[in-house]
Amino acid sequence: MAYNLLAIYESEQEQNYNKWFVMDENVYVSDNVGFTPPFQFSVPNEDELNVTALSSVLLVDFQTRIEVEILGVLESRGFEVYREENVNYDTVIYPSTLAIGDYQGEYFLKFKWSGGERTSEVFSMCDMSDRIKIEWWHNSNFCYPNGHFRYKAPFKFRAYIPSTIGKPSYEYSEKVITRAGIKFPLQQISFKLNKFVAHLPEFMVDAMRLIANHDNVEIFEGTRKYVVDEFLMESPNWLERGDLGEVVFEFKTDTVVVTNAKKKVNVEYVANEGTCILVSHICETLLLEGSSDYQNFQYTSMETGETVALENGDKVIIQNSSNELNFARFFTGPNRYELDIIENPETFFDANNNKYYFAPTNNGGATMVKPFVSSVSNVGVDGLAFGESFENVVVDVWVRFDQNGIIKEEKRGTGDSGLLKTTGVPFEWDDSILEVQLRTSSFNCPLFSIGTWYGIDLTGINFMQIENNFIID
Asked: Do residues 233 and 116 touch, judged by C-beta distance below 8 A?
C-alpha cells in the first residue's frame, strides 16, 4: 500500500515498470524541471534501521543508471530526518519547494544508511505547464499504519495530472415542509461539481485516494485556482493494459449556494515570521537615527499602527545618516542605545517590517546588508553575477533591460548563494541589460528578500562605455 505519491520501496525490483503485466516503461509521477516530487516516508527506528544516520541520497538516471550524490543539496533545501517522541519509527521529509538543479528526464532516488536502503518510484522532471496541479495538506499530523505525515509549512503534497477540467454536473437538493399542499423550503442547496479524468497506476491511486481525507485541497489549471471544499474519487475502471485504471475525480468549490451556509474557518499555512532562514538575532524594529521614534525609544507597529515602547534589552536595527544598518540594544536607566559588534555570518530579522539582513564578509564589525551584487562579468553569451547573500539559500538573478525603448524586468538565472563569492551565478546575457538584482529564496519561503539594483558598468565586461556626453571612450 502506497501512502506517498512518490512510492518508496525496499528494493528497486518493486518499481512499477518491473511488474509482469506492465507493457512498457511508462513513468507516471512527474514534476517540474529540477524538482523531485515532495515526499515523506517512515522507517522503523530499530538499531539496524536508524535512518537518523542517513549517509547518502542518490539521484539515479533511469535510462543510463548514472548516480549523483544529492544529500547535501537536499539538506540545504529542507530535507530532514525527523523523530517524534513515543513512536517507533523515523520520518524522512523533503518539501521540494526549490529546484535541485537543471535536471530533465526520468530518475529515481536511493536512500542509504548503515542499516538499510530504500528506493523511490521512477519519476520524470519536465515541463508541467499543460497539466493540472493538485496540492493537499492537513491541519495536523496525518496518521496511517506504522507511520504518519508531518504537515508543517511549507510541506504540501502535489501531483501533476495530464487531464482537463470540464463537463461538470449541477446538483440541487432541498429540505421542505408541506402545509395545505404548498411546499415551504427550509433549505435549498445548489452546487457545481467539477470533474476531470486520469489514467493512473495502482500506486498513484493508493496515494490519491487519501486526498479526500485531508483538510486542505487546491487545484490549479493554467492561471485558474480552485479552493476545494470537497474532493471525491470514484473507484478505478481498470483498462485492458494491466497497470492502468481510468479514474474520475470530482470536486466542489465555492460554487455551493445554500440558504443557511455555515462559516468555514481557513487555517493559514505559511512559515512563521523569522523562519525563512536560521536567524542569529530577532530585532524589534528598524529605527532611523534622529527620528521621533528613535529619540523617544519607541516604534510604530506595522500590524496595528500603535506606538510600542522599547523594553530593556530589546534588540533593534538603527539606520544612520549614511544609510548604514547597525545592530544595537536598548537599555534603561538611563534610556540609551548601545551598538553591538556584528560578526560574519550573523543574520538578523526585523520583526516589525518582516525583513532579513546579514553581516557581509568584509563589514568591519559594524553594518548589516541585504543580498547584493558587487560586480558582473560576461563570458560569451553568459553573464556572471558576483556578490553576497545569506548562506544555504537560492538566488535568482533578475535584470532590467531596454526593449525598444521600454524598460522591462525578467529572471535570467538561478544558483546557490555560495557561488556568488566564488565562480559567480550564471545568467543569460545580452547588451540590452541595464541593471542586475538578486532575489532570494529558501526552502521555507519562495521569496523573502529582494536586493537593490546594480547598474551595469560596460567597461568592466568587455564593452565600451558611452558617457553622458555620448562620446565613446
From this structure: no
Helix then strand count (H, E) for the chain reads 3, 40
Task: Flag whether pLDDT at 461 surpasses 70.
Answer: no
Domain that holds residue 448: 372-461
> Which band of pLDDT confidence, cut at 50, 70 and 90, is reported for residue 465?
very low
Q: Are 41 and 153 part of one and the same domain?
A: yes
Please report which confidence band the pLDDT of residue 382 belongs to, taking 50, 70 and 90 as the band edges.
confident
Helix (H, G, I), strand (E, B) or coil at 415: strand
* 378: confidence class by pLDDT, cuts 50, 70, 90: confident
CA distances from 365 to 68, 78, 251, 285 (A): 40, 30, 57, 20
Closest CA to 363 of 331, 395, 393, 340: 340
CATH number for position 448:
2.60.40
Phi/psi region, residue 392 (left: phi>0; alpha: psi -120 to 50; beta: rest), is: left
User: Is a pLDDT exceeding 60 seen at residue 255?
Assistant: no
Q: Which of 333, 332, 335, 299 is nearest to 317 (CA)?
A: 299
User: CA–CA separation, 99 vs 224, rounded Å?
Assistant: 23
Strand order in the sheet with 347-350: 281-283, 347-350, 355-358
Residue type for position 230:
E
Same domain, 102 and 127: yes
- Same domain membership, residue 227 and residue 301: no
Distances in Å between the Cα of 72 and the Cα atoms of 76, 123, 414 are 6, 21, 18
Contact 316, 287 (CB under 8 A): yes
Report whether the peptide linkage leading into residue 162 is cis, meaning its omega lies within 30 degrees of zero. Answer: no
Residues 75, 214, single domain; the answer is yes
Instruction: Tell me: do 360 and 390 sit in the same domain.
Output: no
CA-based nearest residue to 107, from 45, 47, 64, 50? 64
Q: Looking at the structure, tell me whether residues 23 and 45 fall in a common domain.
A: yes
Kindly give, in sequence order, each residue whose CB lies less than 8 Å from that of residue 295, ignoring residues fewer than 6 positions away.
none
Helix (H) or strand (E) holding 70: none
Q: Which amino acid is at 210?
A: L
Strands (E), 95-181: 105-113, 116-120, 123-125, 132-137, 142-144, 147-149, 157-161, 169-179
Is residue 202 situated within a structural domain?
yes
Domain stop point among 321, 340, 367: 367
pLDDT digits (tens, 9 = 90+) for 140-160: 999 888 889 999 999 999 999
Q: Which of 213, 232, 252 is the last residue of a domain?
A: 252
Are 386 and 340 within one domain? no
Quote the pLDDT of residue 365.
Answer: 65
Distances, alpha carbon 157 to alpha carbons 94, 133, 153, 372, 435, in Å: 10, 10, 11, 34, 37
**CB within 8 A of 48, min separation 6: which ones?**
114, 115, 116
